[in-house]
Amino acid sequence: MSYTSINVNLTSLEESNLYLRALWSELRKDFGHLAWLYSPHKMGTKKKIIFGIIDLGNSSNYEVSLTYRVKGIIEKIVFSSVSAGKDGSGDFKKIDDCAENAKLNIKSRKKFYFENLIYISTSCTFHRYESENFSIIPSDPGYFWLYIKVDAYDIIDGEYEYNLISNKICWLLSAFTNTLITSHNMPRKRYAQIARIEDLGQRQEIHFTDSEWEFTKPENLPKFINEEKNYYFSSDEWLDGRPNQNDNKLTISKAQLDFIGDFLNGKIKEDNIILVSSGIFREALFIYERSGLQEVCSTILVSALEAVSFDAGIAKTCPTCGQQTRRISARVRDLVSRHLGECAADLVKKAYESRSKFVHTGRFFGRISDPSGRTLPQLNPSDPSGCVRTRDFGVPINNLLEFTSYIIRAECLRFMVQQTE
Question: What is the value of pTM for the model shown?
Fold first, then answer.
């Protein structure tokens, strides 16, 4: 098997991932084609990771692997020919040049601007919000436009980054508004996407043929609505429903806008507990609205509260062994009590206990509600109430959603206040 091995010798995980993005961009530019049979696996004893097979066009297929001395940091990257009857020697010089250019250009990303239509599960839109690297622009009921500036090596790299970032913004907005918000990572022909390269100083639309606009043509897309920007909600203390001012437009607070802005600026990392717990919350809301599976939704919501409790000044570790000194269930109860009082804390404790039974025994609680709405009381000794109930884990699912959303918002405010102290 013929191959080319390229010494890279990078110094960090961040630099290694940037190098890979730059390398894929250089390969796309030089070969005009790049596709993956992506099947990653690690050979720990050899300190080797195999990404899979890359297709560079013209029957040029190569296994791509890397070696490392320190986990997450590239030492060498290797392209091995797997095309029958082709030794790859004609491509290896181009691959070597791409690898060298990628290392030289690792800090040479351009500014790209992407706009995409985001879906809201209720018939409202957002007020307009703007920060340094993103904008929320209101549209027709059920939609808004999300505009993000990303640093990328080419349009494909930029689109990938946009999709990753927009998903996380949807996590946050879902938790901040108690509303399911979805960024569809659809093929380009499914939505209107506009990119602008800052270096060109002008807007550059991505054009398609009529057949490619199979689902949505640009002229039929929901409109942009211009209005005054950064209209903040009047209270951080709301619990029920959604944050709007009777104008059918969702609102967020200044702290929430600043949190999103700091995340895009790199001041807030992807492992931030507010971001992580918002992602868990959004998945629970998605499952509930799409399937109605209350046990699964409640299980995930309790997990979101567990995540928040780690970063809420409640989690304590032993200085000797590093183990948690308090049970997770006690931390979650204290977290809810701090923000919502003892009554809510007791309800969430019941949900936590029911969650444990569901997770460890696989038992559903209660019965699926009769579609007709009838109530027929029955006994069930295994239920804390002694009766058969609809599936609510001891706390109605809408209340548990509202409790979790409220606590994430409260902890977001606490986090942002701490950043200014």
Answer: 0.82
362-370: long-range contacts at Cβ-Cβ below 8 A with a sequence spacing of 24 or more?
Answer: 364/295, 364/391, 365/295, 365/389, 365/391, 365/392, 365/393, 366/390, 366/391, 366/392, 367/391
pLDDT at 325: 43
Query: Hunting for tokens 């380009």 — which residue is that?
Result: 188
CA 113 – CA 200 distance, rounded (Å): 12
Residue span of the structural domain in which 91 resides: 3-104
Residues 131 and 96 in one domain: no
Q: Tell me, what amino acid is at 49?
A: I
Closest by CA position to 243, among listed 134, 129, 337, 162 = 129
Cβ atoms of 92 and 112 closer than 8 Å: no
Q: How far is CA 272 from the centre of its chain?
A: 12
* Structural element, H or E, at residue 55: strand 48-55
- Measured in degrees and rounded to the nearest 5, phi and psi for residue 146 equal -115, 120
Structural element, H or E, at residue 97: helix 89-104
**Separation of alpha carbons 262 and 342, rounded Å:** 34
pLDDT score for 317: 56
Question: Given 58, 81, 104, which residue is the final one in a domain?
Answer: 104
DSSP track, 277-328: HHHHHHHHHHHHHHH--HHHHHHHHHHHHHHHHHTTT---B-TTT--BSS-H
Same domain, 49 and 124: no
DSSP structural state of residue 200 = G
Closest C-alpha among 360, 361, 359, 336 to residue 349: 336
Q: How many CB atoms lie within 10 A of CB 278?
A: 29
Per-residue model confidence as pLDDT tens digits over 115-129: 888 999 999 999 999
Residues 159 and 196 in one domain: yes
92 and 190 in a single domain? The answer is no
